[in-house]
């Protein structure tokens, strides 16, 4: 019997108040054993006491988080301004400034209005935006989503202007066709209304290249067509832009009812059917894991999970599967609207809930948060 086993054994007996562990002595046959036992016996009363104290020691947790600073130390990671990406809606009408009713406090901006708005945020420490183009001019949409990479269209014009005016701002571009197609789906359709994957991937990778060429730092395809990450990566390499362009994959984008306000904002409600055959089914954890592994293999630089709070297990899966990649989480329009609605109904305080939801997202494994709360967080993080 080893010294530590013996000690443990004796301590247990002592605690049971069965007196000294005499029976162990009978196990000792050599002189060595006997000396071990005598050392053990003299230590036994101390050991027994320390076992009973250690029960009390481990029950004391409050001391570790009594002070606000000590509380902050309990988090593996804390929200900082550089983790935030702010999604913004850019209209093709230059002077547009219209409140999006279902997305509290968010506007569709034409470039003339957007730049002054952005200036305030950059001054407060905003580091990154995600651009969504909103073609509002009549006749702007067609079956191929031609407006998506129109050199005079909202996204490409915004990229050029932002690069000029705010050179330190990191520009992400959502790459999809749904805002630009007259049918509102995320690609090019076959006659039967299903997505033609190959044509869609060709078209979407062209759009990504056009955004990167205009100066976007990051292209983020959200269309969910199979093989688009590989196609975009190959074209970026071919065009000599792979070394300076982050490829962020909406790897695990789930279909569901949380995108409603976004579709109001971007005018991208499908004119028929839904997106259930290309976005992931909400229960499909295994499918999400396969999509994450696939997109890492196809050359994604960042994995995104979307929506965020309803899919924390997927964020944690993404962190596990893509140990060496940053994980981004998109707190989508429906999550944002829900938090606002809850606060308005007096269920909770808006700021407290905004932080709590974000803390959950970070705890699950994300280090990048795409959120409509970004402007508020810039203020809140200063206080
Ligand atoms: N590609 C972006 C979306 O599909 C929706 C995001 C949102 O609901 O905020
Ligand atoms: Zn889309
Ligand atoms: Zn989308």
TrEMBL record:
UniProtKB keywords: Heme biosynthesis, Lyase, Metal-binding, Porphyrin biosynthesis, Zinc
GO biological process: heme biosynthetic process
Keyword Transmembrane annotated: no
Annotated pathway: Porphyrin-containing compound metabolism; protoporphyrin-IX biosynthesis; coproporphyrinogen-III from 5-aminolevulinate: step 1/4
Active site: 253 (schiff-base intermediate with substrate), 306 (schiff-base intermediate with substrate)
Cofactor: Zn(2+)
SMART domains attached to this UniProt entry: ALAD (SM01004)
Alphabetical list of InterPro entries matching this protein: ALAD, ALAD_AS, Aldolase_TIM
Catalytic reaction list: 2 5-aminolevulinate = porphobilinogen + 2 H2O + H(+)
A cellular component annotation (GO) from this entry: cytosol
Residues the record lists as binding 5-aminolevulinate 2: 333, 372
CDD domains per UniProt: eu_ALAD_PBGS_cysteine_rich (cd04824)
Protein EC: 4.2.1.24
Keyword Metal-binding: yes
GO molecular function, one term: zinc ion binding
Annotated binding of Zn(2+), by residue: 176, 178, 186
Database matches in Pfam families: ALAD
Chain sites annotated for binding 5-aminolevulinate 1: 263, 275
Function: Catalyzes an early step in the biosynthesis of tetrapyrroles. Binds two molecules of 5-aminolevulinate per subunit, each at a distinct site, and catalyzes their condensation to form porphobilinogen.
Assembly with partners or alone: Homooctamer.
Family (UniProt): Belongs to the ALAD family.
Name of the molecule in the record: Delta-aminolevulinic acid dehydratase
Organism: Zalerion maritima
